[in-house]
Amino acid sequence: MKKLSLIPLLVLGIQAFAQQDDASRFASMITTEGLQKHLTVIAGEEMQGRETGTEGQRKAAAYIESQFKATGLGMPKGMANYQQFYPLHKDSMTGCRLMADGRELAQGSDYIIPANTNDNGTFSSSSFIFAGYGIEDAAYNDYAGLDVKGKTIILFLGEPKQDGKYLVNGTNRGSEWTFPGLSKKLLLAAQKGAAGVLVINPLMETFNQRTIDNSKKTNMYYPRNKGDKKLNFANLSHAAARALLGNNFDSLLKHSKNNIPFKKDDLFEKNITVSYNYTEQRDVINASNVLGIVEGTDKKDEYVFLTAHYDHLGMRDGKIYYGADDDGSGTAGIIHMAEAFAKAKKAGKGPRRTVVIMAVSGEEKGLLGSEYYSENPVYPMEKTSVDLNIDMVGRIDTERKTADTLNYVYVVGHDKLSSDLPVINEGVNKKYCNLVLDYKFDDPNDPNRIYFRSDHYNFARKGVPVLFFYDGMLKSDYHKPTDTIDKINWLLFEKRVRMIFHTAWEMANREEMLKRDIPLPESALQR
Ligand SMILES: [Zn+2]
Question: Which of 91, 141, 207, 468 has the most CB atoms less than 10 A away?
Fold first, then answer.
């Protein structure tokens, strides 16, 4: 009996196997168990929330490295331990001094000097000039007739209105003199040859302790080429500004609070000496992207990227921000896909193009790791066919409430850069996975601006076609300590990663690189 009953089963088994092509054979090696194994470590307590530049991030990098090594991934040339290091800076004030009329002002109660927008430096002048809002525009000009060379400028934040509309742009929304505002005003003051600037915020009479403390140090930041020279400055309290500007101050303050244009007569020079000194100390912290490759065969000099960020928010007030979905899920996903590609290669079915698996850091600090990679690419961007980026794929959008709407993933970027993107992605999805590919976030009117909010953007701005896979978990536990592994929907997670694997497989093996036939609009290139 037993023997007999085995025969039809065996036949069925063989048939089923014969129907399975190589892609689905290796996709089926991506399993809930495999994803679970990686995510348990990545979103575990030991990683302390993986904040970039901390021990937790370095531990996570070491784990990813160990997995790449165990899988036998290739290491990009010139790299050690699969890691591409990049520097982050953190500045702390070590000293400051502001004198007016020979009298020393008090840091904290009279003024603050924000570390994040000032550099080591000094300036002094024998007089200062009150320059209104510090704006120069065809429609409104505070600088007309003012010679500010070598002098200290005192100005208000903000800009004037006329008949209820902003004077400079004639609309209801502030112009660039409001946002970014100060940096534009500082740049202009520098171009005019001013020595330095003292700034009054009409809405900030005094500085609270938190503002004072925060002004003395920066967050970790990525040192960009600063380019344009800006001036050093201090923010004045209203009491300090009153002492300098004199009795006029209250009427000037009223002007600025009500966005009233300043007239020629409102602006003046005073022969009061000003001297300013600011020093800071810079700490350099090394963070890293972790890169491993499955080398291609006949098209190995072309590349398909799989990316996800392995950093998260770290610890705050003693609480760990686990980041299981954000983006532990993507990190576990790319490690597991790397394993499947490596197994395929071992079985003689390796990809034609080189598949690059890159776990980036610095995402939560402003896409820093991917920015660094895109400015210092290990492989030419022109030869990078596509970046498939994953940031949160293990959960369900809280707006989806009924079971028939849960078989989905948001796909972002399908209508940009390459017309091949949706054709390939939809094709493999239909053939193998049957997920609903939801393009909601590609609506140009969507307020979330998701296209700009994860690492694929740094590939897109270099012209590399990208697709971004995402579960929409923006409410509920997003950026909270409660983004934990117990909330992962494993079957959906597995299904999505398999679909992304199929997409990568097809893109790595097809004859042509993805064509680049839909350039990003100019507006999408400015962040
Ligand atoms: Zn994220």
Answer: 468
Q: Residue 341 contacts by C-beta under 8 Å, 6 or more apart in sequence?
A: 26, 294, 350, 351, 355, 357, 504, 505
CB 505, CB 27: distance < 8 Å: yes
Q: How far, in Å, is the centroid of ligand 1 from the Cα of 328?
A: 9
Confidence of residue 6 (pLDDT cuts 50, 70, 90): very low
Q: 288 forms bridges with which residues in the sheet?
A: 85
- The whole-number pLDDT of residue 473 equals 85
pLDDT at 38: 98
Task: Tell me how far apart the alpha carbons of residues 168 and 177 are, in angstroms, rounded to a whole number.
Answer: 9
pLDDT, tens digit, 9 for 90 and up, residues 224-256? 765 567 899 999 999 999 999 998 999 999 999
- Centre of ligand 1 from the C-alpha of residue 392, in Å: 6
pTM: 0.80
Gap between the Cα atoms of 393 and 404, Å rounded? 18
Q: Using the predicted structure, report yes or no on whether residue 458 has a pLDDT greater than 80.
A: yes
Long-range contacts of residues 247-253, Cβ cutoff 8 Å, at least 24 apart:
252/130, 252/156, 253/200, 253/202
Residue 262 Cα, ligand 1 centroid: separation in angstroms? Answer: 45
Task: Give the tokens for residue 374.
Answer: 């895109």
Tell me how far the alpha carbon of residue 319 lies from the centroid of ligand 1, in angstroms.
18
Distance from Cα 88 to the centre of ligand 1, integer Å: 19
Ligand 1 center to residue 412 CA distance, Å? Answer: 14
In order, the DSSP letters of 302-346 are EEEEEEEE--B--EETTEE---IIIIIIHHHHHHHHHHHHHHHHH
| Cα 143 to averaged position of ligand 1 atoms, centre (Å) | 45
3-state secondary structure of 228: coil
47 CA to middle of ligand 1, Å? 16
Nearby residues of 306 by Cβ (< 8 Å), 6 or more positions away: 334, 337, 338, 355, 356, 357, 358, 387, 388, 390, 500, 504
Residue 55 has pLDDT above 60, yes or no: yes
Q: Quote the ligand 1 centre to 313 CA distance (angstroms).
A: 10
From CA 73, how far away is CA 240, in angstroms rounded? 62
Q: From the CA of 498, how far away is ligand 1's center (Å)?
A: 20
CA of 483 to the centre of ligand 1 (A): 11
DSSP codes, 48-112: TT-BTTSHHHHHHHHHHHHHHHHHT-B--TT-BTTEEEEEEEEEEEEEEEEEETTEEPPBTTTEE
Q: What is the pLDDT of residue 42?
A: 98
Percentage of the chain beyond pLDDT 90 is 87
446/471: higher pLDDT: 471
DSSP string, 351-384: -SEEEEEEEE--STTTSHHHHHHHHS-SS-GGGE
Distance 164 CA to ligand 1 centre (A): 40
